[in-house]
Specification:
This protein is α/β, with parallel strands linked by helices. The protein has a domain of about 140 residues: P-loop containing nucleotide triphosphate hydrolases (Rossmann fold), CATH 3.40.50. About 40% of the residues lie in helices and about 20% in strands. It contains eight helices and eleven strands. The longest helix has 16 residues. The chain is globular and about 55 Å long. About 30% of the residues are buried.
């Protein structure tokens, strides 16, 4: 019996967490993967943050009111949730479980606080940390033009602390300016390599 061939025929679906500080390009990375036709299920996060002009409901995020978010939180809908810079973010466990049950690899982008929560609640997920220099992060945040100077400085201060958390992730990628395709290539390569593990990861949730 060719055990490697048998394992490769039905690889276990993966849960891949893309995280990193504000301005590192988490959203841009997943959008580029989608544009290139990557065959993954891209989890859509629910947030109370106001929708930006370029964002699409149900594609970038599910945008809800604080009351709607709290109602879902009370029902226990979210696998993890966090308040980030005054706005709530949450990811539904049912969405993840449904995609995995269909044999789909699930990719989700999440802030560092949320990734820490998932470390404690999900076994065998793949955690990928995107990083960049603080000067690059500042330039991107300023170009985005969505924060006051005070809010921007608060994000940069948080980013400096969050970058130190990269040692707790499985992989760390430098998402430098104008290297988005290289970052996507690296993520695809990581997933391919994980599919070839002699001992496959099998996702399960702790209660």
């Amino acid at each position: 019996m060719n055990d490697c061939a048998d394992a490769a025929a039905t690889p276990s679906p993966l849960l891949v967490i893309i995280s990193g500080p504000s301005g590192v390009g988490k959203d841009a990375t997943l959008k580029r993967m989608q544009a290139r036709g990557a065959p993954f299920h891209f989890l859509v996060t629910t947030t109370t943050r106001p929708r930006r002009p370029t964002e699409v409901e149900g594609v970038d995020y599910y945008f809800v009111t604080p009351d709607e978010f709290q109602a879902r939180l009370t029902r226990g809908d979210f696998l993890e949730h966090a308040n980030v810079y005054g706005n709530w973010y949450g990811n539904a466990r049912s969405d993840i479980e449904h995609a995995l049950a269909q044999g789909q690899d699930v990719l989700m982008r999440i802030d560092v606080q949320g990734a820490t929560t998932l470390h404690a609640r999900v076994e065998n997920a793949i955690f990928i940390f995107l990083t960049a220099s603080l000067s690059e992060l500042e330039a991107r945040l300023r170009a985005r033009g969505t924060e006051t100077e005070e809010a921007l400085q608060r994000r940069l201060g948080t980013a400096a602390r969050e970058i130190q958390a990269r040692a707790f992730f499985d992989y760390c990628l430098n998402n430098s300016e104008n290297q988005l395709d290289e970052t996507v290539d690296d993520i695809v390569a990581i997933i391919r390599a994980e599919k070839l593990r002699a001992k496959p990861r099998r996702i399960w949730f702790r209660n």
